[in-house]
Amino acid sequence: MEGRSLRPLVENPSTVWRDSLFLESLFTLRDTPFQEGIRTDRWKYIRMYDGVINFKESDHDFRGRAPEFEMLFDLHTDPTEHHNLAQDPAHATTLAQFRAQTAAESEAINARRTAFMKTSPPAPRESKSR
After folding, report:
1. DSSP state of 6
2. Are the CB atoms for 50 and 69 separated by under 8 Å?
3. Within a domain: residue 127?
4. Number of domains the chain contains
5. How do residues 20-62 score in pLDDT, each as one tens digit?
6. Would 29 be classed as within a structural domain?
7. Please, what is the end-to-end C-alpha distance for the chain in angstroms?
8. Is the backbone of residue 34 left (phi > 0), alpha (psi -120 to 50) or beta?
9. Closest Cα partner for 86 from 106, 57, 66?
10. Dihedral angle at the C-alpha atoms of 32, 42, 40, 83, nearest 10 degrees?
11. Whole-angstrom Cα distance, residue 105 to residue 23?
C-alpha cells in the first residue's frame, strides 16, 4: 500500500493536499472483479474488470481494455450512491474525464510496481505438504 505522511497536514491545516484519491483492489477470490477508480469530494468513479485468481502482473494492465462495468456517482446529489450515472449522456464529459484520470493513475502505479519488482523480486511461496 502506498502512502505519505499526514504530518505536514496535521501540523498545518492549510497545507496544499490532494483533491482526489485513486482506488485499486486486486483481490480476486470468490469471483471479485479487479476494481479501480477515483474519488473526489463530489464524484466517485469505479470501473471493474473480470478478476483472475493467481493473477500475473500483466493481468492488471488494463490499457486498451474496456471495463466490464462502470459506476459514476454524484455524491452531492446522491450521497447514498443509488443512481449510477455512467450511462447517462448528460454526464458523458465527466465520465470521460474520470476514465482518463483513472487510466493515467493505473499506468503510473503499474510502472512503479514494475520498477519495484525489478529491485525486489517476489520470492515464490513454499507449498505446505501434509
Report:
1. S
2. no
3. no
4. 1
5. 888 888 777 777 788 899 999 999 999 988 866 666 666 667 7
6. yes
7. 33
8. beta
9. 66
10. 10
11. 9
pLDDT computed for residue 127 by the predictor: 67
**Which amino acid is residue 95, in one-letter code?**
L
Quote the domain boundaries for residue 39: 8-119
Check which CATH number belongs to the domain holding 69 and give it.
Answer: 3.30.1120.10
In-domain check, residue 125: no
2 lies in some domain: no
pLDDT at 77: 97
Start-end of H helices in the chain: 7-11, 92-119
Beta-sheet pairing, 20-25 with 69-74: unpaired
Report yes or no: 68 and 48 within 8 Å, Cβ to Cβ.
yes
What is the per-residue pLDDT across 79-111, written as a single tens digit (0 to 9) for each?
999 999 999 999 999 999 999 999 998 888 777
User: Nine-digit cell at 18?
Assistant: 490532494
pTM of the model: 0.75
